[in-house]
Amino acid sequence: MTKTTTDTLRDTTTSPAGDFSALPGLMSLMTGDEKHGPAATSTLDALWVLYDRVLRVSPATAEDPDRDRFLLSKGHGPMAYYAVLAAKGFFPTAWLPGFGSYDSPLGHHPDRLLVPGAEIGSGSLGHGLPLAVGTALGLGAQGRTGPAVWVLIGDAELDEGSNHEAIAYAGAAGLSRLHALVVDNSSATHGWRGGIASRFEAAGWSTTTVDGRDHEALYAAFTQPHPDRPLAVVARVEPKEYAGDPKPKTEATSEAEPEPRGEAA
Amino acid sequence: MDTMRERFASVTTRLLDEDPRLAVVLADIGVDGFRTAAERHPRRVVNVGIREQLLIGVGGGLALTGLRPIMHTFASFLVERPFEQLKLDLGHQGVGGVLVSAAGSYDWPAGGFTHMAPGDIALLDSLDGWTVHVPGHPDEAETLLRHAAAAGDDKVYVRLSVQSNEAARPVDGARFLTLREGRGGVVLAVGPMLDNVLAATEGLDVTVLYASTVRPFDDAALRTAVAGATAADVVIVEPYHDGTSTRHANDALAHVPHRVLGLGVGRRELRRYGQIDEHLAGQGLDARSLRERITGFLAG
User: How far B231 CA lies from chain A's nearest CA (Å)?
Assistant: First the structure.
């Protein structure tokens, strides 16, 4: 494990928007907390590496039919996602403090009709990967072979059977422009015996499992060749700390932790 | 005469040639009818296997890239099983598509309740913005499928059935048709219910309206028909859950005291197999039963 993000987050909140060190400050605008535990930031490093170095999409090309697509399927706990989009200029950082309020476009689950740069509205688990399969098929049907389609799902989200419909079909169809990023914080109630990657491998995907905090490892995984196959990158981060936690896993939120269940997905 | 489903395959095969925006998504049902289309347009005819959540999710993804997906399987697996996908992968994403169902309420009675979907329209009524076509004849199905394919980014449901009327009517994808005019009340027949309704109301002094497009509901046509009757008494005969359109009729007639009787398929399971005619009788939707129920209501 490399230096944890929580450590990194502590002393960099004054950095300008536009680089990784600015993200915790941007998240604080939403949460009101100076620090964020591993749960709130489970997706942060992978999202940053994608948007900073991999995805060919920017505010200027957000409507370009040949842009890369990133679909946040695990819509719970989207603070890290919003922080990255704001840092990359998709919408003003001034929107962040309104997070979750009636007049804000930034909900506790993202809505693609409200959030510039958001390719899908999500929140109900298990919808992003099927939508990503359709997106990859639709781009291919129009001869748009350039754009990559990425979808982020959580290890607990994999419980939803709809994912397994999509995993099996995408492998069989050889959707080589499709990429699944599975952020694994060990939050699936029954775990994944044999490993998450094995589900994708058995269906005919290329797979890599990496340290979800290691930016170079993530970048290498994201950019590896995978001819004729979709790619799944399993990014492992610190376990979601539910063991021994007396609080039930519910949708209920507290002021101290806006999305207790959220990042678990 | 070909069936509505056969017409669906032949018409859609031609539409795929004509309109590069169209794509067909299947889930192992109806694949044979699209063999030629799949050879001609392998990237726009997709069969995902027996995966109905993926059927709709893929449709939503295709639509996100600008295509117009046409998704097809039996009504029970198109509307009921992946209902949340209809709500979220189409509606909530702000994209549209065409759902084309088969088997309806009891097209295959020997198949039992697992293959019956009399609640499909009621379910869609809980969502915003769906156009619903219920053709009563293969020629009407062709007209309505063409309307659906050309309807921009609208969300459109086309409910195909092997139940069919003897003759096609000149449907336009929007308006109710007035087939008979009378003074004693208004009977609205939906899609394949028409022939039985015409037989049931033979000799009665009632207006018979015919609807092959039920959403949006043609409020104006119903109001006009009621204005010509001595009493604002309306009977709606639908081939799916009874009462599905009653709310719409009430809303259309909110300005006038009125009565509405909603006839259709009951919620209870008959737990019977057999033939379609036996189920029509079992639901009280054969001509003789309809006449009794309609005259009883109008006399009340």
Answer: 47
CB < 8 Å & 24+ apart, contacts of A17-24: A17/A86, A17/A87, A17/A89, A17/A93, A18/A87, A18/A88, A18/A89, A19/A87, A20/A48, A20/A52, A20/A215, A22/A87, A23/A48, A23/A80, A23/A83, A23/A84, A23/A87, A24/A83
The beta-carbon neighbor of B54 closest among A111, A142, A169 is A169
Which of A134, A136, A139 is nearest residue B60 as measured by Cβ atoms?
A134
B59/A134 touch (CB, cutoff 8 Å), yes or no: yes
Q: What angle do CA A129, A77, A119 make, to 5 degrees?
A: 40
Alpha carbons B66 and B89: distance in angstroms, whole number: 14
Cα atoms found within 13 Å of the Cα of residue A141, Cβ hemisphere only? 33
CB A3 within 8 A of CB A212: no
Query: In the numeric block, which tokens belong to residue A187?
Result: 């939050």
Interface contacts (A, B; CB < 8 Å)? 100
Q: Comparing C-alpha atoms, which of A76, A29, A58, A77 is closest to residue A116?
A: A58
In angstroms, what separates the C-alpha of B7 from chain A's closest C-alpha?
25
Which pairing describes strands B130-133 and B213-215: parallel, antiparallel, or unpaired? antiparallel
Q: CA-CA distance, A49 to A30, in Å (whole number)? A: 21
A18: left (phi over 0), alpha (psi -120 to 50) or beta: left
Percent of chain A with pLDDT over 70: 84
Q: HSE of A263 in the Cβ direction (CA atoms, 13 Å)?
A: 24
Question: A190-209: per-residue pLDDT in tens?
Answer: 999 999 999 999 999 999 99
Question: What is d(CA B147, CA A15) in angstroms, rounded to the nearest whole number?
Answer: 56
Which pTM value belongs to this model?
A: 0.93
- Name the residue in chain B with its Cα closest to that of A66: B65
Read off the pLDDT of residues A47-57 as tens digits, 9 standing for 90 and up: 999 999 999 99
- Asked if the ipTM is above 0.95, the reply is yes
- DSSP codes joined into one string, A1-25: --S-HHHHHHT-TTSPTTSGGGHHH
